[in-house]
Structures are given as structure tokens and as C-alpha cells.
Amino acid sequence: MPRQNMSYMVPEPLEPLNVEEMKFWLRIMEEHAIFIKSGLPKDNADLIDEAESFQREFESLRVRAERVQNDKKFMEIVTDAQVLVKDFYTYKRGLLHQMLECKLAGCNFPLFLDHMAREAEYFLRLLEKMKNCRVALSGGTKAQENVFWLRIMADHTYFISHLLDPSERNLIQTANEFSQEFDELFLQGRDFSSMLQGYPEVPSFKRFIQDVRVSVLRLRDFKRAAQDMIEECRLVGLIPALLADHVRREAEHFLLILTMMEKGVVKNMAVASLEDIGETPLVETIIDTNDKCKIPTLMKPGRDEDFPEEVREPEIEPVLEPKVEVEMVTNEKMSSKFKMSKEPKFSKPESKGKAFQEKEVVKAEVILQEENVNPVMEKAESKTSDVKYKWTGKWPRQLGKKPE
Asked: C-alpha dihedral over 312, 144, 402, 297, to 10 degrees?
């Protein structure tokens, strides 16, 4: 049966992406199949079997992508993925229409099915760009990219709110506040998408990208805190740990795209050449054997660990200086205190050698262990305690303010 041409409702992705991007989206599709299967009625064996089949096929493609070592094999995966994702898209839309016509029950929200269908549609466009190596970019396409991802983030907040137990009132309120925030950003992005058609990027749109990035950072932290609570059984609701991890990874992917926009990896011109893109240090180039196509490598392996510096949160590692003098102060009304002093970093006393300094360090460490006090560690822990994995509710910076 001949396949029909699709009329797309989502924008073209920003760049042709590399194998890591392929593996990211194949994993997303594989998890979509798991979510759909878990939400289908048990008496719909055919639909469940079809979901399991998609799960196995996407897993197989992902394993192939893990082992790919040349561009020819990679392009074969792209071709196979195009066929599979298009079939999966049709499957998702079919389930959605059955639910809207009250012909299918289950636990999958119709909006959730539409959400997953939109992501499959986006992946199809990305695969087309991988195959055809198109890199046409403009301010308008950046705005459309933001519109797509802002709607995805808004959907996540609604899913979280509706899958929390009614007793989790504070978390529900926080999720609803995020929903309103991202709905407004989505509308603002749609306005920019309309205003920037045929025009270059303007300062107000750059400020908009900064504001979006701040909101997505806060939402990412909220999702990560919720994921930790689910894994530790400290949250009451119906959200599986895999779904919490799924939406958190998608927020980090959006942050990566925003970082690429701000760093200039995404060029502001009608047509950006691959040579221009290759000038940035974040990009490596893989040249096809037939020299017809170059695939920019925008991310290195290990996407969760090798995140851009502006997205990664700083970590504080307390270091004990090599020269520490400890003076014990006793008082009948006060507990023991430490009075610490440091010599200049590059000073080398003539009268005290290396063995003496090491002896002093060991002595200081023994005293600190006996008193169970470590001022350096206490100071560091006060700054880092649960901050990295806990939602604080505070803005990293004011709206519109450029990061220092």
C-alpha cells in the first residue's frame, strides 16, 4: 500500500544532528511505546501487542545506533527509522481518534497521545534533515522551535498536575503555576514567530530566549526533585519513575537547544553553511565517504554528563590547604572553637621543610576528627546541601537580565 505524504504541523528542527541525537530520540520513542502499553485496557490484546512490537523495534534501532561506526551504516539507520517512526506516528494518531470517538478506554490522556504524536512528527522532520543535510536557519525558525518546545513543556506540567495525588496540594499548586507560566511563554513565542517572518533576529527576541531558559531551568529542577521523591517513595501519586525521568531529559534537551542558540551555534542567517557552523568549538564534523553530506556533531557522547557549562550547575569541592595551624581555645562557658589561619599560597618557610608541613596537616586532621568538626566542609555543605537536586522556588536571575 503506497504511503501518503504528510502535511507537517511542527517546525523543522534547527540542525541536522548526530548519532547521539538519534539515540536520544530513539529512546524517547521506545519509552512512548512503554507508556502507551501500560495505559491500554487489558482486553485490547492487539493494540498491546502492537505497542510491544514498536518497543522492541525502537530498542533494536537504538542498539544499532550505539554500535554504528561509519556514515553509511548511520544513513541506513536513518532510513529504517523514518519508516518505523512514520508507522508509530500513525499508530498514535489512530489511538487518539479512537479515544476521542469513545471507542477506546484506558489510562492514556488524549492530550498525552497527541503530545507523543507531535514528538514523533518532530523526529520525522529531524530525520529528513539528517538525510538531506539542510541547514536553512533564520530568526523566524528559532521562534518556531521555541513554540514547539514550550508547548511540550506546558504539556508536561499538566500531566504532572493531573497524575499527582489530590493530597499533594503544594506540588499541584506549583505544577499549576508552571502551567500558567509556560502557556504565557508559548503565546509570546507564537507572537515572535509571526512577527519575525522574513526578518533577522532582534534584541527583544534574544531577551525572550533568556527568559525561556530561566523558566526551563526552574522547571527542570522541579522535575528532577519530583523524580527523586518518586524513586525514594516520598511522593504520593500515579507518576511512574520512568515518566518523571523522561520529562526531565526532554527539559534538558530543550536547555541544550537554547544554549546552542545563545552561543551562536545556531546561525542567524537565511542559509547557514556547514563551514560556518564548523567554526564553533562545540561542533565537530563527520564527512560522508561520498563527500556529499556533512553531519555536524553538536553533542559528544554522554549527553547527561557533558552538558554545556551554562546549563550545568556549579559544584563546590572543599579543599584543605596544605598549611593549616590549629589553635584550641578553651572556655568554661563556651564549647571548643577553632581559630584557623592560612599562610600565603606560594610562601615557602625556610625553617620548616616538607616533612614538618605534612606532620602539621596530619595533626590538624586528627584534631578535627576527634572534635567531629570540619569548618571547611560545613561551609561547603551549607551551599550545596540538596540544592542541586531540590527545587528551591527562587529565580536564578531577574527576567530580561543578562547573565554575568
From this structure: 40
- The pTM assigned to this predicted structure is 0.66
More confident residue, 7 or 69: 69
Distances (CA, A) of 274 to 258, 271, 277, 279, 320: 20, 10, 5, 9, 48
**Which position has the grid cell 539507520?**
77
User: How confident is the model over 2-29, as pLDDT tens digits?
Assistant: 555 666 666 554 444 567 788 999 999 9
Least confident of 66-80, 164-178, 223-237: 66-80
Quote the CA–CA distance of 90 and 87 in Å, as a whole number: 5
pLDDT computed for residue 46 by the predictor: 96
pLDDT of the residue at 358: 54
Which set of grid coordinates corresponds to residue 379?
A: 561551609
Map out the domains of the chain with their CATH numbers: 1-133 (1.20.1260.120)
Calculate the alpha carbon distances from 91 to 79, 110, 126, 152, 176 in Å.
19, 13, 19, 20, 30
**DSSP secondary structure string for all residues of 1-47:** -PPPPP---SPPPSS---HHHHHHHHHHHHHHHHHHHHHS-TT-HHH
The Cα–Cα gap between 33 and 120 comes to: 11
Q: Can you tell me the distance from the alpha carbon of 55 to that of 100, in angstroms, rounded to the nearest whole number? A: 24
User: Angle of helix 19-39 relative to helix 110-132, nearest 10 degrees?
Assistant: 160
The rounded mean pLDDT for the chain is 74
DSSP 126-159: HHHHHHH------HHHHHHHHHHHHHHHHHHHHH
Alpha-carbon distance 127 to 124, whole Å? 5
What dihedral angle (degrees, nearest 10) is formed by the CA atoms of 175, 179, 185, 188?
Answer: -170
pLDDT tens figures, 326-340: 444 444 444 444 344
Grid cell for residue 257? 537547544
At residue 269, does pLDDT exceed 80?
no
Terminus-to-terminus CA distance in the chain, angstroms?
58
Determine contact, residues 249/181, Cβ cutoff 8 Å: no
